[in-house]
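Lecture 7, part B: from sequences to assemblies.

Below are the input chains for today's worked example.
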Amino acid sequence: MLKIGKMSDYATVLLAEMAGVSQAVSAANLSARTQLPVPTVAKLLKQLSKAQLVTSLRGAAGGYTLARSPESITVADVLGALEGPLSLTECAQGGSGCNRQHFCGTKRHWHHINQAVIAALKAVTLADLARPVAIPSKFKSVVVIEART
Amino acid sequence: MLKIGKMSDYATVLLAEMAGVSQAVSAANLSARTQLPVPTVAKLLKQLSKAQLVTSLRGAAGGYTLARSPESITVADVLGALEGPLSLTECAQGGSGCNRQHFCGTKRHWHHINQAVIAALKAVTLADLARPVAIPSKFKSVVVIEART
DNA sequence: CCGAAACTGTACTAAGTTAGTCCCAATTGA
DNA sequence: TCAATTGGGACTAACTTAGTACAGTTTCGG
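Predicted structure of the full complex, as structure tokens:
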């Protein structure tokens, strides 16, 4: 399945919704707009706030706002915030990883595949998600550039 | 993490190893070559056989061989065989999926992101993995072409 | 013809992860 | 002061994954 967590999916929906609103919105409000359960929305917004993708305003008329412009927040940012560093395999990530590292010839290839996937994720911004139409033309070029590592 | 299963990772290692051998190799043999546990290797080969990525030869001198040329088997094929259809989200996949399909504006975007990721995965073949050096130059161009859907 | 080597299929268990929920403390505006 | 709202945990139930085991079938070699 190569799946991302359901939470990450929800998060993109939330953020895309927020991209279309200028004022601060409360968790309850966002829940109503997106039809996602309130506790889940609240939990997600906390995480996004900690990752500094949204800024929070406490108090009676509080709520959340995008921390940056929708154009500058990418899907890669969102996934990174919720799932940690993006890495298809243990070894492509920095960490200790598997015990075959030293003789595993496949490792370095995973690294490149990883880069390409991340590039694809970086190519889509919240502004794109908020837009009703499909991926803009810039998509292609960005993928090319990033894949050239 | 955007993770793929450990099994998928192992599978690429196994297949890359097989790409370098012409004769049929037994599960035990492959286990020795890759240092992966025997039962796991056996299980994986069964799945790969069912997915028709490898062909099996039963009997005393039996074993497994790649069903196609290493150049024609991609990482996307391997992942597809072990994890089912490649799809980051439920909704990007065909299935019933989430209950917000009808009004979720994010869905169609996921579809495109998905395509780009799959393109990256299709761009790398077993022949590439078996090769000790990094991704060949064709990589870039393939990504471009596929992303243009 | 027999036995060893190898694949086939299925079932099972233990561990880890994820999704979802709840509660209480801290903050702010009216 | 009160009500609305975020902040930060903790917790549970369900699901998925990894890994193992075992009984059956096929084929080769002697």
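Note for the exam: Chain B touches chain A through 52 residues (CB under 8 Å). Keep this in mind when comparing with the next example.
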